[in-house]
Specification:
The protein has 300 residues and is of the alpha/beta class. 38% of the residues lie in helices and 16% in strands. Helix 2 links the parallel strand 5 (78-84) and strand 6 (107-113). It is globular and about 50 Å long.
């Protein structure tokens, strides 16, 4: 699955494997929120945003909420991950998720299936997990083998257990500014922006990438009304993609206050997240936050 990144004529964010983001330097706020990073004294130097540090904040909050939830007599949140095939990156991602889940008190299990599993068998497995009251959240690790339709599988997971936020109902609710399970990478980008204190209200933002799992949800979060049921960033968002002419992409980038991209942009930035330690750790943290949300049935 494509990773997300940020960039702008002055700042940048990157996820573990590919994403880099940057945004234009903004006026220094009078006060900084926890986790925010001040600009360097030299205007041409980038201040490093530690995605790992911010993720630790979120994980600590999730751990506290899990303990509180259980102390009230509720069942411990449980995440089930279905991992198909032997993609090395997927196995690393899943291992990181399971490790982080254990650290915050969320139980988890991984169901391994060979790459030649049929789509019908995979769908049957998800339906059984939907009915299992012991399972709070279900995640099918992407990508899947070519003979399996990912959209069909994502839609087979019950919306109320869809911790990835990929089910068509969760996507639709996101687009309508309603509470929904938000895809973890998009949620990570949004959380980093908020915790770092970068202002989006009234800003021009370029999102380079239109994937339904990353680019689209990020765009929805950034452009929607901050006073709606599911508050957004109140930004003016432009979406660029592989068919956007390079000349136009250059113009949009120059006009943007914030640029979010899925590829490295080698320009000076006001803020930059390192790799490793960028969007990736926060993505895992937001996935576990989603798991707690569905366990507590805060949306459905």
């Amino acid at each position: 699955m494509a990773a997300a990144a940020f960039c702008s004529p002055c700042s940048a964010l990157r996820s573990g494997l590919a994403p880099l983001c940057r945004w234009r330097a903004l006026p220094r706020p009078t006060s900084r929120r926890a986790g925010s990073v001040p600009r360097s004294a030299a205007s041409d130097e980038a201040a490093v945003i530690s995605g790992t540090k911010l993720a630790k904040q979120v994980l600590k909050e999730v751990q506290r909420d899990v303990e509180s939830w259980i102390s009230c007599g509720n069942k411990r949140p449980h995440l089930t991950v279905i991992l198909v095939g032997d993609n090395p990156a997927s196995h690393i991602y899943v291992r990181n998720k399971v490790k982080a889940a254990a650290a915050v008190g969320i139980s988890s299990e991984v169901i391994l299936r060979p790459k030649y599993i049929s789509q019908e068998e995979l769908l049957d497995m998800t339906l059984k997990l939907n009915k299992d009251s012991a399972v709070s959240g279900v995640l099918v690790q992407l990508p899947l083998p070519d003979h399996i339709d990912e959209r069909t599988v994502c839609n087979a997971i019950a919306p109320e257990k869809d911790v990835d936020g990929f089910h068509i109902i969760n996507v639709g609710r996101l687009c309508l500014d309603q509470p929904s399970v938000i895809p973890a990478t998009a949620a990570a980008v949004w959380e980093i922006i908020k915790r770092t204190g970068i202002q989006t209200f009234g800003k021009n933002i370029l999102v380079a990438g239109r994937s339904k799992n990353v680019g689209m949800p990020i765009s929805m979060l950034l452009h929607t009304d901050g006073e709606h049921e599911r508050p957004g960033g109140d930004a003016t968002v432009t979406i660029a993609h592989r068919h956007t002419p390079k000349e136009q992409l250059k113009i949009h980038t120059q006009l943007a206050d914030i640029v979010i991209v899925a590829a490295e942009v080698k320009k000076k930035a006001g803020f930059i997240t390192p790799v490793p330690g960028g969007v990736g750790p926060m993505t895992v943290a937001m996935l576990l936050k989603n798991t707690l949300i569905v366990a507590k049935k805060l949306i459905y």
